[in-house]
Specification:
By secondary structure, the chain is α/β, with parallel strands linked by helices. The chain has one domain: TIM Barrel, CATH 3.20.20. Helix content is about 50%, strand content about 15%. It is built from eleven helices and eight strands. Strands 1-2-3-4-5-6-7-8 form an eight-stranded parallel β-barrel, surrounded by seven helices. Helix 1 packs parallel to helix 3, helix 4 packs across helix 5 and helix 6 runs parallel beside helix 8. The longest helix is centred in the last third of the chain and has 20 residues. About 35% of the residues are buried. The structure holds erythose-4-phosphate (E4P). Erythose-4-phosphate binds next to helix 7.
């Protein structure tokens, strides 16, 4: 399963990329609005730091505007995936951009039928937002199961990019279902590394080493 980071924060992107954890990045206008500086420069910088796919979202809502913005975004880097909303115009733009060799991520997917239509339109990725479904009392992870089954039934190559992830259990469940990608807020990726027994175990090892050193001050690893 690929891991993308769901942020436009350059510091976080560099930090986790240096650990070799990142296969790509997803951004959206809300994430860009949280960062300082010119969003264009931020987006360009991300495409340089990350080798894998970087999803950059259009803000036009009609076809010609999406096409224009999609092509402009693609100039930021060869790894840019154009993110379009799950609307009729978004599907039309998905079809056209994909036919021109520009990969597309169809975002704001909340039902299996929306995912099916996005795959039919040639999307490289569909982004089902599971956390937002959980927020309104629906089972977000069930949507991932449905999409996995449908895509497998018909051998769709479109990848399921699980979005709106809120906690580490979402990641485990998505991996068990066989989702292709999870896109994680930095705080969730941070939590995935942690376990209280790891912390206690390390503290004990270091304390024992100090005891050992007390009797042999010159020893080194
Ligand atoms: C995905 O591409 C979106 O940027 C993101 O996962 C949305 O998550 P949110 O519901 O936490 O805003």
């Amino acid at each position: 399963m690929k891991i993308f980071l769901d942020t436009a924060n350059l510091e976080s992107i560099k930090k986790f990329n240096d650990m070799g954890l990142l296969d790509g990045i997803t951004t959206n206008p809300s994430l860009l609005s949280k960062e300082k500086g010119n969003p264009k420069n931020t987006m360009e910088e991300i495409t340089k730091i990350i080798k894998g796919d970087v999803s950059l979202e259009v803000v036009s809502t009609e076809y010609s505007g999406m096409m224009e913005e999609g092509k402009r975004l693609r100039e930021y880097g060869d790894n840019v995936v154009v993110k379009v909303p799950m609307t009729p115009d978004g599907l039309k733009a998905c079809k056209s951009l994909s036919s021109e060799g520009i990969p597309v991520n169809v975002t704001l997917i909340f039902s299996p039928n929306q995912a099916l239509l996005a795959a039919k339109s040639g999307a490289k990725y569909v982004s089902p937002f599971i956390g937002r479904l959980d927020d309104i009392g629906q089972d977000g992870m069930h949507l991932i199961e449905d999409i996995r089954e449908i895509f497998d039934n018909y051998d769709f190559e479109t990848e399921i990019l699980v979005a709106s992830i809120r906690h580490p259990i979402h990641v485990v469940d998505a991996a068990k279902i066989g989702a292709d990608v999870v896109t994680l807020p930095p705080v969730v990726l941070e939590k995935m590394m942690q376990h209280p027994l790891t912390k206690i175990g390390l503290e004990n090892f270091l304390a024992d080493w100090e005891k050992l050193k007390a009797g042999n001050p010159d020893i080194k690893i």
